[in-house]
Structures are given as C-alpha cells and as structure tokens.
Amino acid sequence: MPEVTQLEQRLVRLGNEIDWPVTPALEARVLVRIAPPVIVRRPWFQSRWALAAAALIVVLAALIAYAPSREAIAGWINVHTIFTRVNQLPTPSPQPSGPLGKRLGLGDPTTLAQAQSKVSWHILVPASLGRPDEVYVQFPPDGPPQGEVTLVYKSRPGLKTSGQTGVAVLITEANGKVDAQMFGKMLGPGTNLEDVTVNGHQGYWISGQPHVFFFIDANGNFRDETLRLATNTLLIDDNGTVIRIEGDLSKAQALEIASSLS
Amino acid sequence: MEGRPTDGELFTRAQRGNQAAYEEIVHRYQQVAFRMAYVITGSAADAEDAAQEGFVKAYRALATFRSGAEPRPWLLRIVANEARNRVRSAGRRHQLELRVAERFRPGDAAPSPEAAAVAAEDSKRLLGFVNELSDEDRLVITSRYLLELSGEETAAALAIPEGTVKSRLSRALARLRVRVEEGGGA
C-alpha cells in the first residue's frame, strides 16, 4: 500500500525532528562501575586502605545505581575530573592518627626543592601565601603514577583553619595528562559546582557541603586518594597539571591564591 | 591506515577485559539506548538510570555474548529490560509526550521559510496523532520508525517475538492512518 509507505517515510523523518532529552554521557560512570573487579588483583589493593576503599566502592556503586534522582553533571572535562551528583555521601573513613601527612593521606614529608627534583612538572607556588609550611610528595602505590605534591599552609592571616583538615590551605598538584588518570568528585545535594577561569585556564569552584574525592589511575585502579571529606575546593588545569586548592576559603580568596600561582 | 574498529571487534576486545573498548561501545550506543529507555519509561531520569545499569550489566554478561552475533540488539535488550523493570517497580509508566523540536530543519526540500513553517506544522500534527495512540501502538511505531530500530531490536525493546512486531506494527500503522485521514492529513 503506497499510502502506508509514505506514512512510514514520514515517521522516520519525524524521528529526526523530535525534541529528545539530552543523552547523558555515560562512559565515565559505567567505567567507574566496572572498574572494581579489576583492582582486586592489583598490589596496591593490599595497602592499609584496602578495606576502606572496598567499602567506598560498594557505597559508590550502590549510590550511583540506586539513588533515584541523582544527577550526573559531567563526564570527562578538561581538569580530568568526573563529577557525580549523589543524594547522600558515603561516610568517610576515620582519619588515622599521627603526623599531618599520615592523617590526611598526603604522603611523605619533604622540601620544595626535593619535591621538584622528583616530579616532571614545574611545581607552582602561590605568591599570595608565600612558601608553604610543609611539603609532601606521594607516589604509587598510594599516589598517582607520576606523583603528587601537596603544599600545606597551616595558618595565614585572614584565612580560617579548616575544621575538616585542621590547616588553612592545602594545595595539591598532580600531572593529569588526558587518559593518564581520572579524578572523581562525589557531590552531595548541598554542594555547588561552578565554572571558573583562572589566568585563562579552565577550572571549577566546588563549595557548600563537603564532598568526597577519589580517582582512577591509568590502569583502571580505583584509588582512595582522600577518603576524608573535602572542604571548598578550586580545581584548575594548568596545561596538564591538575591543581586543587582546598580550605575554608571564599571563592574570591581561592581565586586570588590561584591567580598568584607561579 | 587502520580503520575504525567494528562493533564486533570492540565486543571481542571487551570480552578479553579491555575496558577502553567497552568505553567506546558505551559511547557508540548510549544515545539509542537512552532514547529507547526514554520511550519505554517516559522519564528521562529513569531512562538514564536504565541505560547506565544496562551497560554495567551487559559488561558483566559479556561472557554470554556469542561471537558473531549482532551486538546492538543484544545490548538494547538488556537496557530495555532495565527500563521495563523501572516501569514495573514504579507501578506505572510516565505519560510519554514527544514534542517536535522548535528549531528543527524540515529538510533540504523546503524551498522557503513559509514552506518550512508548513512542514513544521505537519510534523507537529503527525506527532500529535502518534501521541494519541494507545501505549502499545505508540511504542511499536516509535521504536521502529522514530528510533529507527530494526525488527529484531524492536522485538528486544518490546520483549515480544519478531513476528509479533510485524503484525502489531501493521495494525498500529493502519490505526494511525485512519487518524491522519480523519484529521485532514499530516
């Protein structure tokens, strides 16, 4: 029946004219879900964080799977970070006792010069805060493949000491070549996410309620980089170096610190 | 030059544990999977959940995928199952109301803005008739034509045999045609 054929053709054309809801980017979220079976065989899994990490994976998987109105914000973005909106954050593991680096999982204490000799990128220091009070460096199995440097500012005039970390500002730098590693942030309902630009570099300002940080490395390992809750955070990508500035900071304070990085 | 891997090649790599290959599979199929789940559930949020869960379950079931089979219907069947589970557990289907995009281009055939406006009106009228069909008729027509699923994929989406797709489609088209003719064309 020719009429039917014509109608069928019209229906196929109609399919292209529909105002479909935007298709969500699912790749990163599916990868997070399918990664856990792989990590069981990895040596890092035998670390002291194993149990806590496994618990977080289970909670993460459950939240992503069953939170009924969760809202995923973005997949891959230029700061190599995946944001996942969840209804309820997992309970962070209690912080271990001991020195600051151990309590916050920052790695080994070192000096700026020594840290610089160990990593491939130029470590950026904010002129507005001056030299850091402490410097930590961390490599696998507890840090990302190319290492990670953390600058600690215990207190500075005009800056509050954070109730979450016990210090005024933490600046963490890691080399984040595309596909080399993937950071993740789980944001609760009271966490705000805003685009920002710092000295021409793309970034995100995460504020409000605390959020949880995790990452997946080049081998697909799910890493428990910080099981602590993070406070307000500015994330920027400086030509492949991912920089996190964390503390009880206002957006203006964080942006001022970021723009003084050199 | 090495060409783009076929779906079958990607499936074989994913079966060997290559997650990057599976990421590409998700990338290729997420739009059709999400839209199909949207048509089934009537809710974008449920469709998103169903598509994500379907891709995760399919990965875990990759060992059961028969080499040489068509990957697309296999994947869509898993996502469609997830979508139907959500409809069942909610106890009802959200009313699906498809709309014509305001800024769609009615095709290269439209010779003038006036003709384009007429074509847009025609599309809206035809979609109105589709929206008025029964759930069963609307699902089969939307899956087969608007989503351009194959007969096998439509059968997977609706969880019915492929032969039933044909008979259901022909009855649904006949009913739609009556509406179009009674409504003064589309």
Structural class computed from helices and strand pairing of chain B: mainly alpha
- Strands of chain B, count: 0
Overall spatial form of chain A: elongated
- Stretches of chain B where pLDDT is under 50 for at least 5 consecutive residues are none
Range of strand content of chain B: under 5%
Biggest sheet features of chain A: 8 strands, antiparallel
Class of secondary structure makeup of chain A: alpha+beta
Helix content percent band of chain A: 10-25%
* Average pLDDT score of chain B: 86
Distance between the termini of chain A: 74 Å
Overall spatial form of chain B: globular
Helix percentage of chain B? 55-70%
User: Radius of gyration of chain A, rounded?
Assistant: 21 Å
> pLDDT below 50 for ≥5 consecutive residues: which ranges of chain A?
36-49, 62-80, 177-182, 216-228
Q: Element order, helices and strands of chain B?
A: HHHHHHHH
Tell me the major beta sheet of chain B: none
How would you describe this protein?
The complex is a heterodimer of chains A (262) and B (186). With 262 residues, chain A is α+β, with helices and mostly antiparallel strands. Chain A has helices at residues 2-15, 27-34, 36-39, 50-66, 100-103, 112-118, 251-259, and strands at 72-74, 81-85, 108-110, 134-138, 148-153, 169-175, 181-187, 191-198, 201-208, 211-217, 222-230, 233-238, 241-247. An 8-stranded antiparallel β-sheet of chain A has the order 3-4-5-6-13-12-9-8. A 5-stranded mixed β-sheet of chain A has the order 1-2-7-10-11, with helices on one face. Chain A is elongated and about 75 Å long. In chain B, α1 packs across α2.
Main attributes?
heterodimer, A: 262 residues, alpha+beta, 7 helices, 13 strands, B: 186 residues, mainly alpha
